[in-house]
């Protein structure tokens, strides 16, 4: 059923990405894993990932939702989902880095001035600039209104002070979309574009994490970092809208796509393992309880793909679909984690060994849980929608801008 959303062009795109992954990404995964497992070698792992992301950008794939007028593909959100899924099937770290760049472009697409769009979007689409978005802080987490980082206006400049953490592409990005407090209350947040080489912006060494080896998601420290007023995105006070809309319309479907790629890799590995491993003079998949578990993983993959593709299709056609985007992320992450555990039960001790990829899939899947809101956050927002307590839908407000897909790709 999920394939019914795909056109011939989407299928052709999938084959192009899959070929690229086979020849360019897969051969470098082991190097990223080895380097990323050693604290002193984090920079080496990140450098490999950056090289791959830049190469991917040169294929035009980071510009999937950028208009052709700015050098992008104008291929739409479903095409973006297919790209991220196929990359993440081989390397979730690379898929996460690509989706973070696409997320970083979202704020400029929807809130940038014409001058900002013409300056930044062609560079992002070509891969000469990698963007990101910096919202999360240590004490506020997903609670955007709880952030404390400040931006104080002084004439024709703003002065930024504070810290951001868990910033996707923190160590490879060329420009950061930063949300800071310029006043009180919900209209007291403002978004800015901050170039990575700005004086006063410090990027501390990257720490070691459970998974996604090669993907940088570290901290940004701002100490009297001065930027011109022309670096402001939208109006002063639009920061919350920019953060919320980017997270809803890009963050959630992007991460659902990463989870889907990991999930498909779990199924691929489990089917291969049970077809090769022998038990009681038969292949492992001949055992009844093993076949049931494999079937359950397949069912979860099908459900996750359907919810992800359906949500992306609704975005492409400009329909109100915020709950669908939330559900795609919730379903995709939770079912991938369930399948990772099921696959581990099938592999038993073999799944724990680092020469098999399953332990990597399990580690990587846990990284997709928190960004763009945990599963609890998604469930709470879905409850608000069911109870009629939602405060509107970003997909509906920005529908004119979201209907990017040309008729040939619909």
Characterise this structure:
The chain has 410 residues and is an alpha+beta fold. Helix content is 53%, strand content 13%. The chain is built from twelve helices and ten strands. It has helices at 8-36, 42-58, 77-90, 92-111, 114-126, 239-276, 288-316, 322-347, 358-367, 375-386, 394-397, 399-402; strands at residues 131-134, 150-154, 157-168, 175-181, 189-195, 201-202, 217-228, 232-233, 278-279, 282-283. A four-stranded mixed sheet has the order 1-4-5-8. The chain has a four-stranded antiparallel sheet with strand order 2-3-7-6, with helices on one face. Strand 9 (278-279) and strand 10 form a beta hairpin. Helix 3 runs antiparallel to helix 4. The longest helix has 38 residues, at 239-276.
List the helices and strands and how they pair.
Elements: H1 8-36, H2 42-58, H3 77-90, H4 92-111, H5 114-126, E1 131-134, E2 150-154, E3 157-168, E4 175-181, E5 189-195, E6 201-202, E7 217-228, E8 232-233, H6 239-276, E9 278-279, E10 282-283, H7 288-316, H8 322-347, H9 358-367, H10 375-386, H11 394-397, H12 399-402
Parallel strand pairs: 1-4
Antiparallel strand pairs: 2-3, 3-7, 4-5, 5-8, 6-7, 9-10
Helix pairs in contact: 1-2, 1-3, 2-4, 3-4, 3-6, 4-5, 4-6, 6-7, 6-8, 6-9, 7-8, 8-9, 8-10
